[in-house]
Amino acid sequence: MKINIFLLLVILGVVALWTSYSATRSPQSDSSPKEEDTSHLMPAPDFTYSTVQGKTGNLRDHKGKTLLLHFWASWCGPCLIEFPDLVELARKKPENFVILAVSTDKNLADINKFLANLDKTIPENFIVIQDGDKKISQDLYQTIKLPETYLINPDQKITEKRIGPQENWLSLDNNNETTE
Amino acid sequence: MKKIYFFILILLCFMPYPSHGSEGTKINVGAWSSLPILHEGRVKPLDSFARVTLKSFAQTDSLRGLSASEWLALSVFDPATAVYIPAFKIRDAESYGLSKTKNRLYSYTDLGKIIRDNQDNIQKLIQIDEKEWASSQFNLMSHYQHYILYTQILRSLTLILPINEEDHNFLDFKKRQKELDQKTKSIIKNKGTDLEKYTDEEKEIAFLSYQINVIEQSANGNVLFRIIPENWEQKQTNWLSPWDIILSGKGSPKSAEYMKIWQQMAKTYHTDDVEQWSQTIESTKTYFDNPKLRVEKYYNMLNLLHCALIFYIFSFLFIVFSNLANNKKRWRNNLEKISFALLISGAILQSIHIILRIYILERPPVGTLYESILFVSLICVLGFVYAAWKQKSKIGILLGGLSGILLLTTAQGFVSEDSMGTLVAVLNTNFWLGTHVLCITIGYGTCLMASLMAHYDLFMRWQHPEKGEALNQSYQNLKTVVVLSLLFTTVGTILGGIWADQSWGRFWGWDPKENGALLIVLWLAWLLHSRVSQHLTKIGFIVGSAFLSVVVVLAWFGVNLLNVGLHSYGFISGVAFAIASFTIFELALIGGLWGLENKKRTIYEN
User: Fold this and answer.
1) CB-side exposure of A125: number of CA atoms within 13 Å?
2) How far is Cα B570 from Cα B563, in angstroms, rounded to an integer?
3) B256: nearest CA partner in chain A
4) Rounded to an integer, what distance in angstroms lies between the CA atom of residue B471 and that of residue B465?
5) ipTM exceeding 0.85?
6) What is the tens place of the pLDDT at every residue in B512-558?
7) A65 SS3 class
8) Is the peptide bond before A147 cis (omega within 30 degrees of 0)?
9) CB contact, 8 Å: A163 with chain B?
10) In this structure, what DSSP letter does residue A48 have?
């Protein structure tokens, strides 16, 4: 009988130790991945595009550079408000930084008309793309409401998605984070 | 022994198994039902979601010819057919002008008629406090809630279901919405709103534009079917419904890919293409390959608890029959062996059931009142199995089967639609569930064991006072179990105090639940001390032990009825009558047995 009770106490002790161990082990460890580790990030799907100038290219052509994949349209008011800031951002970061501005406009003329009226020179690293059939925006990136922007790192992995117009594009630092 | 297991195997063949394959479609939703969904705070397989939802509508987790998963698949992929499936239990259907059906199940269209006819009443009731509703009003609001809920389910995938014969869906037309709206505006501007003046093409454009807007508007707030993680990279993340993804702009390339798979499922479901369906389901493994979800689906399907209960019933019956076959020793031995094998098999099935719950819920199996009954039941059965094996005694088999039957039947009264719901925050700690709650429930289990043993002991002393040695052995066993009970309940109560100190900042607060736990400890301590000091006779000790059932029931369930104290998560209602009846029954039974035993003993001693 004494042995049985001793055995029970041992079992109870083991259960208590095990639960204590699992309780202290689980919560914090998974929640905050290391900043450097990007293996968990989602790769940005590749696509072929046509620029408003008629040139073609792929997302993968820009590997090694920080990318801003911005979806907009000439009929979208909030898109037009933030557009100049994005152009300015591209101008401020000429090296290793590219903005792919994907317009969902059906008519190329609408895009060109807007760009012509824009009081800014479009730098080389600001590439305006037409996606009239919405194969890039809706089918590939599931962007339906405009504007939306994906931040993509040099390994072509998506680090962030920003929904709606942003007021602080110009404060975007090299780590794709707004400093304001 | 082989014969016995062969017999059990035959018994297993008669267990209830779910049906596969529904009428009208060749599609097997088996693998589909393992796909994940976030529902009531927990990621679970679609099968569990389907069962919980159907149970809330139809009060059963399967319909005639349709399993819960098949019903769900039909509802989301083919809502036009699903609205005619009787899946709503409406007991008061006649009062709404519906004709009486055999099983009281009605379709969504019938339910819709009730809601439309009572629209004004519903609006009025919404303004009134729920406590003031009459029973019929409560029923009406319950029908209304079911209607709203099922409407959401029916519309869950309307964005990817084919709208026209060319298999185009809402998302396809959404690409052209701007253009269609502009064209419609232009048509209205030129020709007004009279459709007669439109050409066929203009009618088509206007209708399509209208249809897209209606589908989108009706999807507002459709958040129930949460099958897509908001953040695919994080384990702990919110999940969104397909409509929520689209309307909130929280889509991503990965959710786009995943929704295309669902689109493919919808297409193959409609074309009844079994091979393509299987391939599509197989492709979801790239996104989710969680063995836990599959295990949970099988857990739902097997219903091991039900099987365990049947085994206990048969075990009990066989041991009773073995007593009747007193003259045929061979028969009696065989019946006893079969009964013991059935009891062990039932305990194994129940253990597997509880282990599966631990694996699925990632916590000790004592988070809810229902779970605690299952656990206490297993403790009792295992305790009696051990006693039966150790002492080669059939009393253990008899009491093991009886405790299994009584407690598992009681558990059915406490099972909610979702028996694996999320725990309240204060209980969400594996450490304290694994120590305090586990310890105290083991204590409850051993107390109930002691009580059952004491009942049996009283019965035997009344029926067979001449069996001195056997009665003495029985008394010694009872004493051991009472000591064990005191150990577990005392340690459990102290651990509870430490938890209370950590959670609420005090060790003891004379809370009803704390008083309940203390009551058991004091009762046990009183029994043992009084017996050691000879203040209590042997028979007094047995009678006191028999009353442990009442003390445990009061501490376990009774104090929850008081609705006061910090243990608010455990409050229950509606069992006061059952507890009172049980207490009166026990008083009569134990008192009666004691009286009869006393009478018989006097005669025997004389």
Assistant:
1) 18
2) 9
3) A142
4) 8
5) no
6) 888 889 999 999 999 999 999 999 999 999 999 999 999 999 988 87
7) coil
8) yes
9) yes
10) E
